[in-house]
Amino acid sequence: MTVGLFELLIIGFIIGSIGLGIHGLVDGLRHSDAEWKAIGQDRTLWLLAIWFFGIVGAVAYLVAIRPKFQQLPAMAESPRMPMIGAAPPGWYPDPSGAPAMRWFDGHQWTPSTAPMNSPPPTSWPMGHPQAPAPGYPPSAPGDPPPPVS
Questions:
Q1: Which of 7, 11, 49, 88 is most buried, with most CB under 10 Å away?
Q2: Whole-structure pTM over 0.85, yes or no?
């Protein structure tokens, strides 16, 4: 029994489609819910589209959504949205989008908030000895105080 060119093309298309679908699913699953929320898309919807529509869903994901994830590292480096462990303790815009400043302790967001554009708090949340101004990292000893808006 010999395999013709047409049969080889069909087999290649099937294997390629399965590979592209698996690649799309794995790529979609490796992004956190926060990343999906940051690009304004629903993770479950896209994973189901890839699963049920196969190559069409995978191509749509790779063309329309994946480039948005590639832009996220530039957003994560911004001092306005520190990633856990990537920024010094300080007051930053609330990552939830609320119009307030939220205290980042260097490891996680705390429940402490301050109104946006308010004078700097006079003490750190949770009883810390010094407080930097909103939007500014803590200053080193001897540095001039941050400006008050």
A1: 49
A2: no
